[in-house]
Amino acid sequence: MPLIELIYQSVTDGEMSKQTMQDIINEARQKNPNRNITGCLYYKNRTFLQLLEGEKSEVESLFAKIQKDPRHFNPKIVWQGEIGERSFAKFWMMYFNNENNDLLFDQPEEFNQTTATALFELIRQRL
Ligand SMILES: Cc1cc2nc3c(=O)[nH]c(=O)nc-3n(C[C@H](O)[C@H](O)[C@H](O)COP(=O)(O)O)c2cc1C
Description:
Elements: E1 3-11, H1 18-35, E2 38-44, E3 47-55, H2 56-67, E4 73-82, E5 94-97, H3 113-125
Parallel strand pairs: 2-5
Antiparallel strand pairs: 1-3, 1-4, 2-3
The structure holds flavin mononucleotide.
Residues 24, 27-28, 31-32, 41, 48, 50, 62, 65-66, 69, 71-72, 93 line the site of flavin mononucleotide.
């Protein structure tokens, strides 16, 4: 089974409450070990960017669920493809909230493979 990475972008209809955010992270960290999915969830300006990595069928079935989640909207796949190794192997779901601009990054309206990969690389440098 190939190992893949899927990165998508979505929006929220208002600033996320701390509680909702915490619920999402808790759910991810509780469930991802069963699917052997690791990754990173980034949030800023009502925008989520999430990197999911794992076996293709697991990543695709999780993404099908996430897409239907009413806590965010308009999920768009930024990039999806095979990878040789995981970027966030030690994290069932790392969370990076950049509302305070801790990470100096000029967030585009629409991410593409280059900007998304650059952002996750910056986050990885903080690990
Ligand atoms: C932005 C966002 C990211 C999410 N990330 C994950 C995740 O990494 N893993 C996960 O299991 N659920 C995640 N969820 C929750 C799923 O949408 C869904 O609630 C959950 O997978 C339901 O699982 P169940 O149907 O097996 O109970 C996320 C939800 C949102 C809004």
